[in-house]
């Protein structure tokens, strides 16, 4: 009769422990997350989705109501005329009305201050000139805005050369005669402008700086009153936009001395550029330009929508014809290029401010 031999109890226990250890090493114990932490993680994830999805939805549904386009000058002026041309075409491209809101005052600073305080939802924009974006914030610590801090410049769309007009009664029918007389009579030859910090003021200051002369700056509350006094013979010279220069090109009382820009204008081919006449610093960098701006915190998707619509608007045949009639060029600088131009212009104006050529007094 055979008998079975049983393993000792101690050996059996040790074997079971070894087997249990082997199973643990093969299948590591699952890490169990505290339910409280799990709920917290899911809540944070949900919150992140809630932040991103509405922002995306806003850009996708933009625009669902009319837009407001701020203009810092009175109706009828160059900036207002161009703004209304652009607003009409932009309205068509966006499928929503774009209403021009004139906020004249302080050479355009009031409109800029309004934009800086507006809600950054894309429904308030500004059609701004270069003076508003480059010089005005530098002239006063109380300007109420800083361009690259407070604004997103969507795109530059228009530019214009300046033409120097001189009353022939002064005997200064060319640039050489003007510089000669100005050096002989410092601070006596007057030039009018639409106001401190406006393009007609800035170009005059650049002329003083480039030629080493001192002129008498007479600021007005707008281009209209300044031009009226110039026509009336109460001012010696004045920088004007291309349409005004063309309008007075056949007037025997005025001499069209020179034009800013890289090349002669096709509308005034007989008028030389300052560069041709050997005057540095009055080339393309001094041309007037206009851009569309929005509050800096405007979502990137909405900025992109505005930019795309603006590019479409600028290809509208109506815009091309209207710009040609106004004597302005269609420009196409994107946001980054516009920011670089602002930085360059600000450096240029800073030199004039330090030299005492430009002030807000």
From TrEMBL:
Coiled coil: none
Listed transmembrane segments: 41-59
Signal peptide residue numbers: none
Positions of region (Disordered): 1-35
Keywords: Membrane, Receptor, Transmembrane, Transmembrane helix
Extent of Basic and acidic residues compositional bias: 15-32
Sequence similarity: Belongs to the UPF0065 (bug) family.
Name used for this protein in its record: Tripartite-type tricarboxylate transporter receptor subunit TctC
Organism annotation: Ottowia thiooxydans
